[in-house]
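In the previous chapter we treated chains in isolation. Here, by contrast, the input contains two separate entities that must be folded as one system, with a combined length of 739 residues.
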Amino acid sequence: MTHRGDWWPNLRERAETPVLVDEIELPPYYADTPEVKRDWANYLDTIEYMDREVGFLMDELKSKGLDSNTVVIFVGDNGRCNLRGKGYLYEPGVHVPMIV
Amino acid sequence: MNTFCSCFSFLRSGCRTWALWNLLAALSSSAALGGDDLAVCIDTHLDGRPISYNLVGLHQVYTFTPDPVFEEGDFAEWVEANGFSVSRFPGGTTVKYWDWEAPTGQPFKDPMLPTFDSKLNEPESEWMSVDEYLDFVEATGMTPLIGVNSYIGAVHGKELEMIEKAVRLVRHVKERGFGGGFWYIGNEEMHKHGGPAEHARAFRKYATRMKAEDPNIKVFWNDNNPSKKSVREFLENDGGTADGLETHGKWPYGGSPELPPASYEEWLGEVPLRDRKNGDRKSGGRVWRYAADEYRSIARSMGRDLLVANNEYGFGSANNMGSFSRFQKGLLATEFLMELYIGNWDMTAFWDLALRSEDGVLDRQNGFRVNPAGEGMALLAEVQGGTFLHAVKTGKPSVHGFAARKDGVVYLYLLNKTGDSHRCDISLDPAGLRKVELQTLTEGEDGYGKLMWSSRTIDEGSPAVELPAMSFARITVHPLEKVASARSARTLQEKPNIIWLMAEDIGLDLECYGMKGVSTPNLNRLAEEGTRYTGVYCPSPICSPNRSAMMVGVDRAKIGAQHHRSKRNQPLPAPYKPMTYWLKEGGYTNIIGSDLVMGKGTKIDCNFKTKMLGSYDGVTQFGLFDKKLEYTEEDQPFF
C-alpha cells in the first residue's frame, strides 16, 4: 500500500478525508514546491490507508477472541520511497518505525 | 534496473475479488442451483505417478513484452509466489533469426539477409536480452529453457560459426550459475532441414559441442507433428544426444490449416481436448491426454527415455475462436494445462505472455493485468512435483478434472464448462475428520477472473461443493492427522500467536512518531498499549536484503543476501535457516498474507532459495509458510 505505485493518486482521489496540503510539514531537505507537497500529502494518504488496514486486522483479532494472546509486531521494511529515503544510506533510508 | 520498484496494476486488489464463501451455504441453498447434482469419488489409496516439477511454464518472448514487465518487481513476485516453473526463451519464431551476441529485436527477420534493414531494429527496452532473461530466472527461481538456432548457419554456409556461438551461450549461461538447464535446438525447423533424419544430423553437431561445454544440460528437439516414422528417423540419427521431444500445439489448432473455426458448443462437448491439425486427423486429431505416452513408447521401443514437452500450448489465431470471451479463453487455457497434467507431460510453456489482450497470461492493453488464464494456471501449479492419482469424471462429461496428492494433502481439480452451476458430492475414502478448502475461479463482472475461497472442517460424511457456472475449482482435503497434531501442539504449549505487520517503504512518518498532518489512530493505540521503538535501523535501504536478514536473523552479508533481488536460486548457507522453520519446530503454524489488506500481503522477496508454501530443509525443500490467507482455530499458535 505504502509502496510507491500507480494506485497512489487513485487512493488520494477516493479518500474520504485526504491529507491536507496545508497541514503537512515537509522535511527541511525537500524542495517546498506545490508538486513536492502534493506528493508528500499523497504519501501520507497511503499511510492513513495502511493504518486503516492495521485497524481491520486488530478488529479481526478481537472478533475471534485472539486479541489477548497475540503479540503484534509492526515494522517498516525500509525507509520511505523518496529522495534520501529508500535506495539511499541517509537516515530516512534506513531508520524505520517499530511498534510491538 | 529500477530502484523504486514501481508496481504494475495487475497486483492491485481490485483485480481479484475474494469472497468468504461457506461450503455449508452451498449445501443448504440447493434451490438456487440450476444444474444436476453430481458426484465424484477420489481414490486416495492409489500409489499414483509423479507429476513433473516443470509443468507450468511461460514464454518470455522478447519482441512482444517490454522490459519493465520483467524488471519491476511484481510480475516476478507473482510468478514466483504461484510456482510457475519453466521460462522459455527467446521463444517461438523469433529464435530462428536470433543472434544472442547481436540481437536486433526484429521478429521474424534474418539479419544475415541482404534485405535486412538494421534501421528497423527495436530499442533495447522493447526486448529481453540473455542477461535480462537470466536476471528474471534468478529473481523468480524458474528453470531456464533456452533456444538455439540450428538452421540459419546451414542456410548461410556458416554452420561452424553458429555452433561456436551456441557453445559460447552455453558457457555464458553456465558462468551465470545456470548450468545444467534445459535447452532446445531448432524451433519448428525440421522441414527446412529436409526431414527428421537431416534435422537430427544437424541437431547432433550442435548438441555434441554444447554438451562438451556443459555435460549436465538436457536438450530437446522440436517436432510439431511427431509420428512413429518421424520420431524413429530422428532417434536413428541424433547419436543419442537428444534428451527430449518438444512439440507445439494449440486449440483448436495452430497455423493456418484451412479448418473451420471452433465454437463454444464444440468446446463444451470436447473432453478430452484435441488438436485438430496434428496427429491422426481422420479420427479427430491429436489427443493431448494420450499423445505424450505415445511419443514415449515410440522412443522406448528404441531403448530411449524421452522427456516430452508441449512448449507452445495455447490458442490458435484469434479467428479460430473469435466468439470466445476473455474468461472462456482463460478456462480453455486452464483445461488445456489440466489435460497436460492428466496426460503425464514433462514440461509445458504457455504461448504467449502478452501478445493479444485476451490471449496471454497478461493483458497487454490493461497494464499487464493477469488474465483468467494466468489465474487458472496458478491454481494448477501447486501440485507440480506431487503425485497424480487419477482423472475424475462426474457423470457429466463437460464437468471433469483430476485428483492428486502432495505433502499429505489431497487435491481435486474440477472444471465446469457448462452454463449451469452444479452441486458435487465428493466421496473420500476413508471418511473422517478433514479440513476442506475450496478455491473457485469464476468470471467477474468486468470479464476477468474472480477467485473465491472458503474453508471448513468436516467431521463426518462426504463434503459437497458448489461448482458455479463456467468455473474452475481447486478443492484441497487435509487429512485428520495434521489437524489433530496442530491441536495437540496448542494444548501442550501455551505460546502466544505472533502477527508480523510489515509496512513497505515508510519512514518515521506516523502520527505517533510526531509527523504533522497525518492521522494514524490504530497505530497510535498500538503504541500506547505497547512499546514504541525510536532507534530501529534496517541493514539496507532496500527491501530484499532487509527481508532476507529479517527472515534469518543475521546481517544480510553473512548469508550473501546483500544484493537486491539476487541469488534467488541458491539455498541459504548452513547453518542458517529461516525463522519460520524454527517457529514451525516450536509448534507454530506459519501463515502468510491476509485478505484484509491490499494486495493481500504475500510478498516474500528474500535473496535465497524459497518457496511460499511447504516444508523447509534447505537442501531439496524450501517452503517458508504452511498456508496463505487463511486461518482456522486449529492453527494456533500461529505466526
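The mean pLDDT of chain A is 91. Chain A touches chain B through 57 residues (CB under 8 Å). Compare these points with the single-chain example from earlier in the chapter.
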